[in-house]
Design goal:
single chain, UDP N-Acetylglucosamine Acyltransferase, domain 1, 13 helices, globular
Length: 462
């Protein structure tokens, strides 16, 4: 084993203030990596899922739902900077709908749920060092969100990127911040424990937590799931939805042949020869929404038994140290997925939810759909599909990355607002195209421009 590489990485983490839990998880993954582990999950080792219980069929009593909700906390994963979209601050501070940011809408969703159900429903953010200050400043106007005894946020850990050739911590004097990376959202579990938040929640009488990404505004607490979880003593619930063409390159839920346990397989855990199977929507029908429900007592017991390491499977991510420079040094980032914890709890379940609970914004393509008239906000700030599109998949948007991938370029070209997409199936844009006000897309439309053009106000594209 590369003892020197691990020792150097651990020394860096200790100097950086990393917790014992974070270092323990990193060290386990490092040893696996050094021994040649790929983290791959072969297609032959899993079975496809055919049916899951549907959230619409869950029927706990109203009293059971409210009792469970009164003991539930909301945790939002908020460590991302949106660097892939050209941002340099918390992605959740991006304006997305009716002048509101992700954080504005999340705060108002929680406040509406509190009023409606007369429950405390604490809201907590898992921030990174680079999102904490901006997030706290943005939330200052929502003083009523504060919950006695529960901190408003806690920090995820970070770890060194490793040189691909010898697994030593990479050095990048041009920008030392690029020497570090987040360990994936599987870091939620050790960070909950090491921050003291898990103990604070259970001591205050909270039994359940609903965890989701801050860039998914469809992820709102559903009292039916909380009540069903309590009624059936389920320790872990993953919300899954039917995969569409937009999910072909993403991970999926499956059942492990060896023991029948539900597991999550990410793209980075799939070999080249199994990629076709992963992308076969008729075979692997369910994707993970990254909306997860936790029984905090079960989680606390598991983390106590394992000293803060649930034993999640390794995700080996090959990158370059500078994501914007493909010629920079090749590195390995050690990661894990929050949803992968489904395989560590006996009795863990998954429920099928509608696409309205899975509206993540990972690209400016997603952002355009969210800003368009495909979605609207109701009186409780819930994101709902506009009436004419209910029951349909979102339109497929494919904007030329040379001009639209980064938020500044995207904003310039849609300065007059998003086009109407409510009657659209597909919009493809190739070239430098600026959209005027009141543009409407009908059916499938494609715009190709060899030189910069502006689509006039009120144009109908079909």
């Amino acid at each position: 084993m590369s003892t020197a590489g691990l020792r150097s990485a651990v020394e860096r983490m200790r100097a950086d203030g990393s917790t014992d839990e974070a270092i323990g998880v990193f060290s386990r993954f490092y040893r696996q990596l050094d021994e040649g582990a790929s983290g791959l999950i072969p297609e032959a080792s899993i079975e496809a899922l055919r049916d899951l219980p549907k959230v619409a069929d869950l029927s706990p009593s109203v009293d059971r739902q409210r009792a469970a909700l009164a003991r539930t906390a909301v945790i939002k994963l908020n460590g991302g900077l949106g660097t892939s979209m050209g941002m340099d601050r918390a992605k959740s501070l991006l304006t997305v709908k009716q002048g509101h940011t992700f954080l504005d809408i999340i705060a108002r969703q929680v406040l509406a749920l509190r009023r409606k159900h007369d429950v405390a429903l604490p809201l907590v953010f898992m921030n990174s060092f680079r999102t904490q200050d901006d997030t706290r400043a943005a939330l200052a106007k929502y003083a009523e969100l504060a919950t006695a005894e529960i901190a408003p946020d806690f920090l995820q850990s970070r770890e060194p990127k490793l040189r691909a050739d010898d697994l030593s911590p990479v050095e990048w004097p041009a920008d030392p911040e690029l020497e570090w990376c987040p360990p994936g959202h599987g870091d939620l579990y050790p960070a909950l424990r090491s921050s003291g938040l898990l103990q604070a929640l259970t001591s205050a009488g909270y039994r359940y937590a609903f965890c989701s990404n801050s860039d998914n505004l469809g992820a709102v607490v559903d009292p039916r799931i909380a009540g069903w979880m309590a009624e059936n003593s389920v320790p872990f619930v993953m919300e899954s939805c039917r995969r569409t063409a937009a999910d072909r390159k993403g991970g999926h839920l499956a059942r492990r042949r060896a023991d029948g346990q539900l597991i999550l397989r990410e793209t980075a855990q799939t070999s080249e020869e199994d990629i076709d199977s992963l992308q076969d929507l008729s075979r692997h029908a369910y994707c993970n929404t990254n909306n997860v429900w936790l029984d905090l007592d079960a989680l606390s017991a598991a983390l106590t038994r394992t000293d803060g390491d649930l034993g999640l499977p390794l995700i080996r991510n090959a990158k370059t140290v500078d994501p914007s420079d493909p010629a920079s040094a090749k590195v390995i980032q050690i990661e894990s997925a929050m949803g992968a914890a489904i395989e560590t709890f006996a009795g863990a379940q998954s429920v099928e939810v509608g696409r309205d609970r899975f509206v993540p914004v990972k690209t400016t393509n997603d952002l355009l759909v969210l800003r368009s008239d495909v979605y609207e906000l109701d009186e409780d700030f819930r994101l709902i599909t506009s009436g004419a599109r209910r029951g349909q998949d979102d339109p497929l948007v494919d904007l030329d990355p040379a001009y639209f991938k980064l938020v500044p370029g995207f904003e310039r070209r849609f300065a007059n607002g998003a086009p109407s997409l409510i009657d659209s199936d597909r919009l493809i844009v190739k070239g430098d195209v600026t959209f005027g006000a009141g543009v409407k897309v009908m059916g499938s439309a494609a715009v190709t421009a060899a030189e910069p053009i502006t689509i006039p106000d009120g144009t109908v594209l079909d």
